[in-house]
Design brief:
It contains four helices and no strands. The protein is mainly alpha-helical and 65 residues long. 2% of the residues are buried.
């Protein structure tokens, strides 16, 4: 996808952009563990081995954010 070509066509519908923004917010919010989507994060840290938990908290969440 080339954004400059999409903008030139002028076919950016506001409803579609709003829906895409909501999907992106939910997807990244779940991966990073943001406020309403953070229910999996404490369980993942408690149940995983120490090495995996440290990689999860120190690297994966920061890189995703």
């Amino acid at each position: 996808m080339a954004w400059d070509l999409i903008v030139k066509c002028g076919k950016l519908e506001s409803a579609l952009l709003s829906l895409a923004f909501v999907f992106l917010l939910v997807g990244y919010g779940t991966k990073v563990g943001l406020a309403p989507f953070h229910a999996w994060l404490p369980d993942a840290h408690a149940e995983g081995p120490t090495a995996i938990s440290s990689v999860l908290s120190g690297l994966l969440l920061n890189v995703a954010l």
